[in-house]
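ping. complex inputs:
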Amino acid sequence: MTPAPSPPRPWADRFATRRWLGPVVLLGPAGVWLLLLLVLPTLLILEISLVPGLRLGQPSGGYGLGNYLQILQPVYLRVIGRSLAFAVGSTVLCLLMGFPVAYWLALMSPQRWRNLLLVGFILPLWTSSLLRAYAWAAILRPSGVLNTMLTTLGLPAQNWLNTPTAVFIGLTYSFLPYMVLILYASLEKLDTRLLEAAADLGATPSQGFWQVTVPQTLPGIAAGCLLVFISTLGDFVVPTLLGGASSMNISRLIYNQFLGPTRAWGFGSALSMVLILAVSLAIALLLRYGDKSSVSET
Amino acid sequence: MPAPRSITWPSFFTALMYAFMYFPIIVLGVYSFNDSRYSASWEGFSLRWYRALFSDRRLLSALQDSLTIAIVAVAISAVLGTLMAIGLARHRFRGKGLYRGVSYLPLIVPDIAIAVATLVFLVSVAIPLSLGTIIAAHMVFCLAYIAVVVASRLQRLDPNLEEAALDLGATPTQALLKVLIPQLAPGILAGCLLAFVLSMDDLLISSFTAGGGANPLPIEIFSRVRTGVKPDINALSVVLILGSALLAGLAEYVRYWGDRRRQTP
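pong. complex structure:
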């Protein structure tokens, strides 16, 4: 029962043209682009990070680890510590705030509206991140919306703009939708029959939650946390617009080495390599312990 | 899970979080109509910030730069990214793992590191910074995101359709253009929309590759808002938010269209 194909092209011909359409045409252009504008540049900053004291327009000496040793100075270690604190703090806040939302969306929301409700929650992601941070500046500034509301209610006014508090609010706000999206994907796959079985066997709802729901969604939790962690670790806009001078983090420090007054390209490149290394470590952890599928779905 | 209790704490908390997500956007919207430059209190309805916005030549030319960058970068990346996704799905070769790993880097590596590396590279090969260099740099992340979205659609396609086309006498190019690409279209479009939004939103990579030659919108907005609150930026936000909502709606429609097409092959 072989269907007779109307005038079949010779096999040899087909394979000849297939070779033309082969890997080179499909993968070549993008490959060249990534090589030229991503791989080569990254290797280049790795190289100049090994030239101590490199500044734009100055002759440089030999190779050495001076730029990396400079990062170990207390003033720069504090910047790295602050970046980590911002990232860890906002990741925890995103998890605590995002989990109930994802849980409600995946298991308790009316089925008919579920998709629309999820889209509604992540809709703010489509707007400019710069303008969202700016909106928080307008809310948190001393004469802003928050204090107008607080004083109307007879509460003491707060001065949060240009403090770490504002950075935490801004980062959590910016990355909460990502967390909800990943947790939702994980909770949606939850086998609710296990919860019913647990209830039938006498488990209280809270036992069911902690011993059935949470363990099943752990890979999603890990994926969401690591995604928010790496995004917040390298964020520039929020700490700059909301954090003021007291919230210097690693991206702002790198930015200043290149576009600020210092022009210390070697040191800036070393900081970039440290940031890339930190992110790669987080990714390695994710690939090892996290739920890969829930990340690729987003 | 049947939970017929009236108002549970997750639903209450979720409502609160929706309010949290929309509060800043509503604030921007309301204040864009406020007839006051500095005060947070309501001074009466006014369209003056919108008038100021549409007569602001600098802002409009920045918007034009951004649109040029995004449209050109996304258009080229759509072709390169789609080809890359098909190539990765179809061919086995030495170093494929490395190739795939590199193609994911723009999604993972922080913008600041990519921006710095691109600047150092451009300076070291003495390419003058311009609109063209911003487009070249944006293509890196645009094609990576488009490839990821296309690849996930490719994964769910029926591979037999292309084989059938070949068996029925189509050339591989015909099979690609007339069978595979139309089936991938929703994925390509969704990837393009995502890349477009990311390109319009990018501050860091643009800042490092712009030089004096171009001034895209995020750079212009950043230089204005870092010195304080500007009411005409409120009006701009509202215009951009409406634009984004339109795009988001379009993206949802594309996804719906893609799902429907998959169900009725």
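The longest helix of chain B spans residues 57-90.
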